[in-house]
Amino acid sequence: MHLKDILTRLGIEANNSGTSTGTKWLPAQGSVVTSYSPVNGAVIGTVQTTDEHAYEAVMQQAQQAFLQWRNVPAPKRGDIVRQFGDALREYKADLGALVSYEMGKSLQEGLGEVQEMIDICDFAVGLSRQLYGLTMHSERPNHRMYEQWHPMGIVSIISAFNFPVAVWAWNTALALVCGNVCVWKPSSKTPLCAVACQHIMAKVLKANDLPEGISSLITGNPCGNLMNQDKRIPLISFTGSTRVGRLVAAAVAGRFGKTILELGGNNAIIISKDADLEMSVIGALFGAVGTAGQRCTSTRRLIIHKDVYNDFTARLVKAYGQLKIGDPLDENNHVGPVIDKDAVATYLSCIEKIKQQSGRFLVEGGVLNGLGFESGCYVKPCIAEVENHYEIVQEETFAPILYVMKYSDIEEAINMQNNVPQGLSSAIMTLNLREAEQFLSANGSDCGIANVNIGTSGAEIGGAFGGEKETGGGRESGSDAWKGYMRRQTNTINYSNTLPLAQGIKFDL
Ligand code: NAD
């Protein structure tokens, strides 16, 4: 794999503008962000971030573009998204490799992320002919009542580092077919993935002679605050930590804007005494160490029945012993680096807190040094025996640290699963139908995602994705998540020659 060729094909240069209105790249005076690869510590390139002047130019262009885009018939907007999906197919190998190199996830996961982008484009194309509203029966004679869905305007997408391309595509594909224009602010930890995506999008916009402002890119943390306050943005779709999500939610609600919030998780798998333990080991292992524990759906807690606890943890410890840690672009490795040295520091501080709070390590952690680990971002996945109420267990630590704990009956297990502030993904491994159904019932998991005999990690684009409580309550991707990107309007039409009022009210002169 020749990284230099990949970067060239994706339009990445040594120094890049981080501001684009579509096909045009704007000069900007914001600070310069350097992108280092966590794989080997090398500089991949720099990005000049968006200053206030360039931000203003992007927003004005987006406002103008919306006036045209909202009048393009939805199926024609769908055709543009179809072409974007085709362009992604063409660049899948290159973009997947860049995701792996800049973010540090395995090449297979990088490619999988681009596949998700392609899949959501396909989904959105079909959706562009299915933005259905309901028709209701009016209580008044010769009246017709129905609802329709209209575009909202500028949809701003703020994304996290761990899914540097897919989260943007989930939002953009849907928002575009709904008739909105999009402005993307990616994580400053993965800015080059965003620049590459914008180049791919630009090809489609150019080929169709579309106006500037339909799909724009801005970069740099200050843009987040500018958007939170900007009344021209009716919807901010935010993916990131609960800490920042709380700031965004409060600021946007303060101006009566809308948000879609996709925040942190603290996901658990219940391992029943009736589980297929072999399958459960695989589910728990991938969930906990995949993407080096940096998925919002990563498995953080295993709640294990006391009768199988010793057997299951012994199998898991053995499996951890076989993990190969190293370059994520080498398919023989299972675990790549975490994103940067700050993430390593967070991991180490979490390990200290586990010890202080009486946790006991079944597999010890630590930072790897030496040949192949020069970036300083490679850490050992570890397992700690804890109790659910420990302060550190109640938090999301974005690293490959797995907590194990015991339970006696299913009600206790469900209580433990629910007894954290977050509510994203959850799972039960069991062959017992009663337990499985109880877990999925109203008395069961309180999460946005609840699985049976599948781990917590990863999701298909066809379902609505998101979680409850401190995970923010937003939904993205499949099912009817598109409704979050449109405004609903109820219409009543009177085709009689009288004007009856609702609820039988009389108002005669
Ligand atoms: P983060 O909260 O640090 O950053 C997310 C984004 O917010 C970045 O683009 C950042 O630049 C921006 N930002 C920072 N300050 C801002 C402000 N004041 N206003 C607006 N935007 C601001 O998160 P991260 O470290 O990049 O990502 C990890 C977190 O994201 C984890 O908590 C993870 O669970 C969560 N996540 C959630 C989902 C989900 O779908 N629920 C998906 C992926 C990641």
Question: What report would you give on this structure?
Answer:
- This protein has 13 helices and 22 strands.
- A hairpin with a 6-residue loop joins strand 4 and strand 5 (143-151).
- The mean pLDDT is 97.
- Strands 13-14-15-12-11-17-18 form a 7-stranded mixed sheet, sandwiched between helices.
- The chain has helices spanning 3-9, 52-69, 74-103, 107-127, 166-177, 191-207, 222-229, 242-254, 277-289, 309-321, 341-356, 410-418, 433-440; strands at 15-17, 32-36, 43-48, 135-136, 143-151, 154-158, 181-185, 215-217, 235-239, 258-262, 267-271, 299-305, 360-363, 382-385, 401-407, 422-423, 425-429, 449-452, 464-465, 468-469, 476-477, 486-494.
- With 509 residues, the protein is an alpha/beta fold.
- Keywords: NAD, Oxidoreductase.
- The active site is at residue 262.
The value of Rg in angstroms is 24 Å
Q: What percent of residues adopt helix (DSSP H or I)?
A: 25-40%
- What CATH first level of the largest domain would be assigned? Alpha Beta
Strand count: 22
> How much is the average pLDDT?
97
CATH fold-level topology of the largest domain: Aldehyde Dehydrogenase, Chain A, domain 1
CATH hierarchy: architecture of the largest domain: 3-Layer(aba) Sandwich
Q: Give the terminus-to-terminus CA distance.
A: 83 Å
Keywords: NAD, Oxidoreductase
Pfam families: Aldedh
Subunit structure: Homotetramer.
Domain Aldehyde dehydrogenase: 25-490
Structure, briefly:
This protein has 13 helices and 22 strands. It has 509 residues and is an alpha/beta fold.
Descriptors for this entry?
Aldehyde Dehydrogenase, Chain A, domain 2, seven-stranded mixed β-sheet, 22 strands, Aldehyde Dehydrogenase, Chain A, domain 1, alpha/beta, 13 helices, binds nicotinamide-adenine-dinucleotide, 509 residues, five-stranded parallel β-sheet
